[in-house]
Amino acid sequence: MLNIEHIGIAVSKLSNSIPLFEKLLNSQCYKIELVESEAVTTAFFKTGETKIELLESNTEDGIIARFIAKKGEGVHHIAINVADIYAEMERLKKEGFILLSETPKTGADNKLVCFLHPKNTNGVLIELCMKKKEA
Ligand code: ZN
Asked: Which of 9, 52, 108, 121 would give a disulfide with 45, using CB separation of 3.0 to 4.6 Å?
């Protein structure tokens, strides 16, 4: 695996959290993106080589809405860059990890992503991500 690409934080309202994180990080949100596959809106900040991704649910019973209902706002996942997401998924499956999708999905930021079930990762939701090859 390569580096931590971003840390995902579940928030109730981007309209509150974007100004908060702009103050906190002393940098501007540089992108807001709707991710259809997950029914979330994401807002990105650069923190050196890594990014912070704020996630707001677009639906009342979406993944992020349910996470916040259960645990409150806070760190939702850690995303790790991989060179070959298909090879990593194969390797992790053999190691006994549970993948939340059989094939990579299209995530934010033009990436292919796959999540690992937190049951086998000490409760931490891990996102594998790989930059999509330019078509
Ligand atoms: Zn993410």
From this structure: 52
